[in-house]
Amino acid sequence: MASDGRKQPPWIPPPARPDAQLPRLKIYNSLTRSKDDFVPVDPTGKMVTWYACGPTVYEDAHLGHAKNYVSTDIIRRIMKDYFGFRVKFVMNTTDIDDKIILQGRQQYLLARFKQEHAAEDDSVSDSVLAEAKAAFRHYIGKNLPSLPSDTSPETFSEAVDKAYKEKAEPPPLADAATAKQGQAVTVADLLLRAHIGTARSAVEALQAPGKLPEFFAKTDDILLPYLDALHGAEMDSNNHKIYLELTQKFERRFFEDMNALNVLAPDQLTRVTEYVPQIVRFVEKIVANGFGYATPDGSVYFDIDSFEKAGHSYSRLQPWNKNDPALQADGEGSLSKGRSMKRSENHFAMWKGSKPGEPAWPSPWGHGRPGWHIECSAMASEVIGKTIDIHSGGVDLRFPHHDNELAQSEAYWSTPGCQVQWTNYFIHMGQLRIRGLKMSKSLKNYTTIRTVLSQKEWSARSLRICFLLMPWQDGIEVTDELMKAVVGWEGKLNNFFLKSLDLWKHSSPKTTTMQELGIADQQLLSALDKAKADVDTALCDSFNTSAVMRILSDLVTESNSAEALSDQTVILLARWVTRIVTIFGLDPEGDLSNLDRIGWSGLDIPAPAKPYIYPASQLRDKVRTLACSGSVDHTAIAKLADGITIAASTPVVLEVTACSAHVVIEVNLC
After folding, report:
1. Cβ-based neighbours of 358, under 8 Å, separated by 6 or more
2. Cα(419)–Cα(411) distance, rounded to whole angstroms?
3. How far, in Å, CA of 369 to CA of 298, rounded?
4. In this structure, what are the phi and psi dihedrals at residue 252, rounded to the nearest 5 degrees?
5. Facing residues of 91 across strands?
6. What is the pLDDT of residues 485-541, one digit of tens each?
């Protein structure tokens, strides 16, 4: 049936499992845009099947990918380690598609060009210079069409100033604040500036060639599309090695990045190139069921009209976007632009007939390759079956990618009079945004995971804390305020764990089990019981980690402000907090089977520093408690300092932020 563009079609809840011991878990489901009771397909309620859309491996992963896969990992860990489900987690890597073909082909042709024009003295020959100038004209003709056709490297700057004026340079202070005032940088602006920047770099090299390595460093980006336009169609379609070398390299680097971020490896990994026969059979059945058709060029398209006439709903996730031509074109890929033989513009390719210069595999329709959307439909169906509990990916995949996946899988599995709901819960991770825009390789507004971790400003733990502080389905705008919140939360837990570890190391077994509990202990243990109940409620509420992070922070604050606590109470609280942060993946060395563990890795303080660190930490906690109790009284702060002894020969400066108060204290200690 043709779906109403204003609302989603009905969703069928999985049948109840009265004999299964299920948690009261609700999951925000993109199929309903609401929180639905989670009921797995498994009759025992113990096994959960999960298919995650993985990366297209042709470049290094960036922070936007980190947001997606770390958020996914957090939810997976909660399902497994908190709720106790046995999760079968399957993820794919897309190792053949339009972007990979272009990247692999271009890199191969550029490497061949460099080899053919290598010089012993690294000089730039006249032939290289001539090719680069031709590449420059080709590049600006395609990407900067407002420039005059006779624009040369010598006239480029003047021509850009005339043609693009204020768009050529970013405005000052273009950030989240200006975005709120309606002055946000657009995608088109960023693309334009990226193209101008690429051309400017080439102009520098063309006007002062220098040596070959420096010359190519500035002209690679214009040579790549130029050489591909000249020679791309000459590539052997049976030579898959060019593309596999590229994808294998970046798949390996992707999983190195994931390991650095403490993201669990998938239980099963599927690669498109390893499932081509299964994909062909999948397409054949869809055609046999009446929902696909082949064209004379060897392509096969999904017939949305026949699908809807048979009573199915197309575009379950975002029906309001089903007729968006820009999104449809993006889903078909850059190599599919131009004329096609499909019956309707909104039909999409399941199998793409071979074109000159593209890799190809045999099929009943001739040599070709899988379309993007069919990959996950076929692979997930092959390894999981006709119904998946959870399917996940980035929010930008909802339409057309995931909507097309759903349609294809329903067309494959359904029979007359019996429609199959292929996925019961679709979850989509919010994007990481900069100046209101998602991170994108094409926009060149991204930073790779490797670069971020190597610069030490962010660690794997601080990134994960950042994502935990926000709802997983929401976008994140990286701001100074958010970074301060991350640093503050991590610092508070570090100090709490350090003090707890010190108590544990210096407590005898007798004192940790037999010590008499006072009023303060009883109050904190009551707070711990409440925190446990509140955490359970929050995690049952669609994995509300932001609420859990507040609960943990408040509990630590209450512990820090309590007087005359027994060691055993602090240690008990620390062990529970440790368990929760380990479940969240904040400790790469975390061991949930070790019930005595306290803290996370990297907490050791050198012995000579302890006489300074612990008293200073104690003073800071007392000041924080004072700040939260009302107005900051500097006389009271001085009295607190008088009661603490630190063996230091120089003044100690403490900076405390708490309850909207910011206090800087310099204490002269002896």
Report:
1. 101, 235, 237, 335, 352, 369
2. 9
3. 10
4. -60, -45
5. 52, 269
6. 999 999 999 999 999 999 998 775 544 454 578 999 999 999 999 999 999 999 999
Banded pLDDT at 657 (limits 50, 70, 90): very low
Q: Which residues contact 393 (CB under 8 A, 6 or more apart)?
A: 52, 53, 68, 401, 402, 428, 429
SS3 149: coil
pLDDT at 409: 98
Render pLDDT for 34-52 as a digit per residue (tens, 0 to 9).
999 999 999 999 999 999 9
Scanning 119-231, the segments in alpha helix (DSSP H) are 126-143, 156-164, 176-180, 187-207, 212-231
Interval 255-277 mean pLDDT: 98
Sign, CA torsion 153/158/162/168: positive
Structure tokens at 519: 């009023």
Number of other residues whose CB lies within 10 A of the CB of residue 181? 7
Amino acid (1-letter code) at residue 331: G
Which DSSP state fits 56?
A: B
CB atoms within 10 A of CB 452: 18
**Closest C-alpha among 92, 67, 31 to residue 430:** 67
Measured CA to CA, the distance from residue 113 to residue 228 in angstroms comes to 11
What are the pLDDT digits (tens) for 473-492?
999 998 889 999 999 999 99
- Show the tokens assigned to 210: 């220098």
C-alpha 500/C-alpha 299 separation (Å) is 65
Element spanning 436, H or E: none
pLDDT band at 331 (very low <50, low <70, confident <90, very high): confident
Alpha-carbon distances of 411 from 94, 414, 548, rounded to whole Å = 22, 6, 41
CB 244 within 8 A of CB 57: no
Q: List beta partners, residue 654.
A: 665
Say if residue 183's pLDDT is above 50: no
Q: How far apart are CA 276 and CA 583, in angstroms?
A: 37
Helices (H), 541-583: 545-561, 567-583
